[in-house]
């Protein structure tokens, strides 16, 4: 996608070009998350932020493990112990 120059408007507003919004499947009123990383602003949808967090956590989980299954097993052990 081509680079786009835009100005910061009143109140710090920045217009996201229509082709960018379409490519990211963003619509007026959608929530976005802004991250300041290495001197640049990165904009994510909540779904993108979730995928990013899942990917970061996945690096620490052994192959074939299920955190959900481990949590359920822990809860069942705790319930039996009560």
Largest sheet: 2 strands, antiparallel
Helix content: 40-55%
By helix and strand content, what is the structural category?
A: alpha+beta
Query: Helix tally?
Result: 3
- Distance from N terminus to C terminus (CA atoms, Å) equals 59 Å
CATH architecture: Ribbon
Question: Remind me, CATH topology?
Answer: Pemi-like Protein 1, Chain: D
Output the helix-strand order: HEEHH
Count of structural domains? 1
Rg of Cα set? 20 Å
- Spatial shape: elongated
If you had to describe this structure to a student in words, what would you say it looks like?
The protein is of the alpha+beta class. It has one domain (10-81): Pemi-like Protein 1, Chain: D (Ribbon). It contains three helices and two strands; from the N terminus they run αββαα. It has a two-stranded antiparallel ribbon with strand order 1-2. A hairpin with a 2-residue loop joins β1 (33-37) and β2. The longest helix has 15 residues, at 67-81. The protein starts with 17 loop residues before the first helix and ends with a helix. The model has no long low-confidence stretch (mean pLDDT 91).
């Amino acid at each position: 996608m081509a680079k786009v120059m835009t100005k910061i408007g009143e109140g710090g507003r920045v217009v996201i070009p229509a082709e960018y919004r379409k490519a990211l499947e963003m619509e007026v009123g959608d929530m976005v998350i802004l991250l300041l990383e290495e001197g640049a602003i990165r904009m994510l949808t909540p779904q993108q932020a979730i995928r990013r967090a899942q990917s970061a956590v996945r690096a620490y989980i052994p192959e074939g493990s299920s955190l959900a299954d481990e949590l359920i097993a822990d809860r069942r052990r705790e319930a039996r112990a009560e």
